[in-house]
Amino acid sequence: MSPVRAAAWAALLAHAALAAGGDIVAAVRAASDARNFALAEREIQSYRSAVGVTPEMLEALSWLSRGAFDTRQYDRADRYADETRRLSLEMLKRGGLPPGALDIPLGASIEVHAQVLAARGERSQAVAFLQTELASWHAASIAPRIQKNLNLLSLEGRPAPALDAAHWLGPQPPSLAALKGHPVLLFFWAHWCGDCKAEAPILARIVREFRPQGLVLLAPTRLYGYTASEDAAPAAETKYIDQVRNQYYGALGNLPVPISSRNFQKYGCSTTPTLVLLDSAGIVRLYHPGAMTYDSLVSKVRAIVSGSLGTTVGRLPKRG
Length: 320
Description:
With 320 residues, this protein is α+β, with helices and mostly antiparallel strands. The chain has two domains: 3-154, Tetratricopeptide repeat domain (Serine Threonine Protein Phosphatase 5, Tetratricopeptide repeat, Alpha Horseshoe); 168-307, Glutaredoxin (3-Layer(aba) Sandwich), CATH 3.40.30.10. The chain is built from twelve helices and six strands. The chain has a four-stranded mixed sheet with strand order 3-2-5-6, with helices on both faces. A two-stranded antiparallel ribbon has the order 1-4. The termini are far apart.
């Protein structure tokens, strides 16, 4: 498609989205995906003049910052991110918003600024910025997203954080310390996550190939306060998670499933699935928010397992 036709198509999609229901987020995403940032800016300014600054407008602006970053327009991306963050903080100070109303724009603004710093070669500054933001928002729902971005810059090559395994399904999970000598694959999943279910056959194939060489799979998850159809107390949701586990993840075997929001916080699992691969010394060698293909994952696992062959791999520790 020619640039002229692409711009025309973006304008058509954007105006259609707004005409269909004033969906500024869809309009800006359509324009941003077509790399028509001038159109996206006009849509935001038009919406802001008519409606004012709203969570929807700020979410649209955050998508504009992400689109600019994807095209390596770092100054433009940072400018959009800075405006998103400034306006989000002003709205939060005024109050009156429902919980989590600004999670997407505020989280994205922090993420994009850190990504811009890293892309410019200012990795240490990006880490310091994220650490400061995490300290400010450690009790907020955007904390896992901030931790995810911090982990993307700093977790690989470092010891894996310990897992909270006070509650679990399946066999009692061994601690990561007890698994030294074994390569370990952590599969963070959610009961509502379709991409997690699609990853199950890939993981099952990986486990079949590499379990004889010592690979251990653990599948941490967490409670979200609901099931497929209703809000749920912890006991009811845990029962539902077990049903999902048996229905969609049976091919993985009766593997340990620690249940803890603390694990998702420490590993920055705002994205599910998140895959984390540890070598036999317990060092993180892969941190990957999102699904992976078999070919992408197997090459990582094979390299880790091959590097572990010189290490004595004993039996898994028994748990009472």
